[in-house]
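Structure (tokenized):
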């Protein structure tokens, strides 16, 4: 029997698993095989040599171990609130052991006045210390395991985090530990190595088998540290290797149109119609893109820049290079409002130039739609701006050479792939020619996340605001200071300015949130009877919503009450105040996006965060960060630390496209860079990356199947 055979066994065959629990493990933790089980690393290791006394316990303590006896059992509550309580004493005091189901099992398994070791996390209920669903071990069995010279039983005990749904079916940390122990006993050979020997030697790594074993059965804290570092590096190394290898293969497989000149249109716009001088950051980005577009390889570039940094003008000028070289360009935006705003901006900037710009959304129908379709086919439409309507099969281009995706995280991979396919032609040597691609986002992405999620894209950053822009001043008010908010608003509006008032709209509480918005609207109408106030939210009919938005844009209303529908796509330079009500209910990225709606003119702007008085520590930190900095990248880094990389709103459509078992992009930034450097070095010396025989099985063990994400579509 070989090692890989054992690791590929379905977990169904493990003692005390069976089909029902196997299904739960698959759905709840992605565990299908013995190998998957070994990749479920403990979240912590607990010193089982230490015993606490009952009178020492407090609810802020981590997991603890007690020694004593159950004095009695009793049932409390009824129905769903029914619970079984065991009163446990070590002679110094009493704590409650609590179970929410299985009365007969509990009374059959555990006996009063018998010596037990209790392990669990203390909490407080009705003023009493209790431990919910504790782990109980007969004291004699515990002594035999830990005190009778049993070297195979570690004093540092692994603790596995098990989803609540699985806990309700009896799957807990102790059971996970037992299953892992069984797998190790069944293995006749060590886990095969995945890293090349020179890397193990150079980085002084323990073997893969030693590392996995040390994570589950450590003999010391230093061993856990070494194992963790090795496994984190390995996980990140193979992710980076896949990204870089794919990127290099793509460059060999596909070519890009050669734009060998900037052209007359670019120069005409730059010298005659550019509305303001470019910042040095904008010039740098345009030069980077210019080099890509004349290189003969397809450009794939991610352009990051805060709201108001000038991404749109950069996008337009690079489009003019494509048009000047005889091709068309298109821009796909996530919403009709944003697409219409781009159309208005482009037409205004190009008003004196022979460039035809059209808009295609689901709202464009009939004769007008047919005219646009014909213009795309015969090449008379130079720039097409639209929503997902652009990727419909009926939309055909004469020669699409440049594609821009705005706020790309709002589009799926398959949608983007359909856009590339519209433009693919065969170049010399039967090498497919694809349009150059620019992906834009106003949501700053932390460097480590960009390196991993968008690692096959070149990254450009506009890290400089246009001259004359003043940083938005952010102020925190508690909700009991409403009058100060009103006074500040009136002062700004008396100077001819406008203001946004934003309320949350969270799906789980839509009805309540809409009531809050409507109630807030009535309060503001009462507080400002002499002002004109608009209200918009996502539940309104599109025409009604657009009408209210337009009134605000034209200055016909001074205050716009809204939900987060204004997060993207509203540009009103005259608006200088953004008040965000219930700001504690928003994430950092969303707060920063909302704040970006003001500060778009030359006047000083303000963002007021209104919260409840009682806030969690994480919420206080979010509010503090917003008040301290306007730097979107700094905010994004803090957001990732607070929320984790898989849950960053406004970064990916569905979080990161692979599972990380042990590495953490928020905390392991330096390791990501190190792994990328070694992966690049390996590919430079060995383009085929001939790794140890089973290195590619890491992809399956880590659920890192990039084909399932269709990475070839991101070209």
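Design, position by position:
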């Amino acid at each position: 029997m070989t090692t890989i055979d054992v690791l590929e066994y379905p977990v169904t065959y493990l003692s005390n698993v069976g089909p029902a629990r196997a299904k739960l493990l698959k759905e709840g933790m992605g565990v299908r095989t013995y190998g998957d089980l070994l990749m479920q690393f403990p979240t912590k290791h607990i010193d089982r040599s230490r015993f606490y006394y009952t009178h020492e316990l407090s609810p802020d303590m981590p997991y603890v171990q007690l020694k004593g006896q159950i004095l009695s059992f009793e049932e409390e509550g009824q129905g769903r609130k029914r619970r079984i309580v065991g009163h446990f004493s070590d002679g110094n005091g009493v704590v409650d052991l609590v179970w929410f189901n299985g009365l007969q099992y509990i009374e059959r398994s555990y006996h009063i006045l018998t010596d037990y070791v209790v392990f669990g996390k203390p909490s407080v209920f009705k003023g009493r210390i209790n431990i919910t669903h504790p782990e109980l071990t007969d004291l004699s069995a515990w002594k035999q395991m830990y005190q009778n010279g049993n070297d195979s039983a570690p004093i540092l005990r692994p603790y596995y985090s098990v989803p609540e749904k699985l806990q309700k079916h009896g799957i807990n940390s102790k059971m996970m530990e037992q299953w892992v122990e069984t797998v190790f006993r069944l293995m006749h050979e060590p886990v095969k190595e995945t890293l090349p020997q020179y890397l193990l030697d150079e980085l002084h790594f323990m073997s893969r088998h030693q590392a996995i074993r040390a994570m589950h059965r450590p003999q010391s804290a230093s061993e856990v540290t070494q194992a963790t570092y090795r496994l984190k590096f390995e996980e990140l190394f193979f992710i980076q290797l896949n990204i870089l290898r794919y990127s290099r293969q793509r460059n060999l497989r596909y070519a890009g149109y050669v734009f060998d000149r900037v052209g007359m249109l670019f120069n005409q716009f730059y010298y005659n119609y550019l509305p303001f001088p470019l910042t040095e950051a904008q010039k740098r980005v345009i030069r980077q893109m210019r080099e890509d577009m004349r290189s003969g390889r397809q450009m794939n570039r991610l352009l990051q820049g805060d709201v108001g940094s000038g991404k749109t003008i950069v996008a337009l000028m690079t489009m003019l290079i494509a048009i000047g070289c005889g091709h068309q360009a298109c821009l796909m935006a996530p919403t009709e409002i944003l697409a219409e705003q781009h159309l208005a901006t482009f037409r205004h900037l190009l008003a004196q130039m022979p460039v035809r710009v059209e808009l295609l959304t689901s709202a464009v129908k009939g004769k007008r739609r047919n005219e646009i379709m014909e213009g795309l086919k015969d090449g008379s439409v130079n720039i097409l701006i639209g929503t997902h309507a652009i990727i419909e099969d009926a939309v055909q281009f004469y020669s699409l050479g440049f594609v821009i995706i705005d706020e790309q995280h709002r589009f799926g991979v398959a949608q983007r792939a359909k856009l590339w396919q519209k433009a693919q032609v065969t170049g010399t040597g039967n090498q497919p020619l694809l349009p150059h691609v620019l992906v834009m986002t106003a949501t700053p992405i932390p460097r480590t996340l960009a390196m991993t999620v968008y690692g096959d894209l070149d990254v450009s950053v506009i890290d400089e605001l246009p001259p004359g822009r003043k940083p938005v001043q952010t102020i925190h008010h508690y909700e009991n200071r409403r009058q100060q908010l009103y006074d500040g608003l009136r002062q700004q509006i008396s100077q001819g300015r406008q203001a946004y008032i934003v309320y949350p709209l969270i799906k789980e509480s839509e009805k309540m949130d809409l009531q809050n918005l409507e109630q807030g609207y009535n309060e503001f109408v009462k507080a400002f009877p002499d002002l004109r106030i608009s209200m918009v939210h996502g539940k309104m009919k599109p025409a009604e919503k657009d009408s209210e938005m337009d009134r605000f844009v034209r200055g016909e209303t001074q205050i716009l009450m809204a939900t987060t529908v204004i997060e993207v796509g509203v540009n009103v330079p005259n608006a200088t105040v953004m008040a965000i009500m219930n700001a504690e209910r928003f994430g950092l990225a969303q707060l920063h996006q909302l704040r970006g709606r003001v500060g778009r003119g030359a006047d000083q702007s303000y963002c007021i965060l209104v919260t409840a008085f009682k806030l969690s520590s994480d919420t206080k930190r979010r509010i503090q960060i917003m008040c301290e900095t306007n730097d979107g990248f700094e905010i994004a880094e803090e957001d990732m630390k607070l929320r984790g990389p898989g849950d960053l709103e406004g970064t990916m459509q569905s979080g990161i496209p692979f599972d990380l078992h042990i590495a953490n992009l928020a905390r392991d930034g330096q390791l990501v860079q190190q792994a990328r450097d070694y992966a690049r070095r390996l590919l430079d010396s060995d383009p085929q990356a001939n790794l140890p025989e089973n290195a590619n099985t890491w992809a399956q063990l880590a659920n890192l199947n990039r084909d399932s994400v269709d990475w070839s579509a991101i070209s």
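Reviewer-requested clarification: The first helix runs from residue 3 to 7. The two ends are 43 Å apart (CA to CA).
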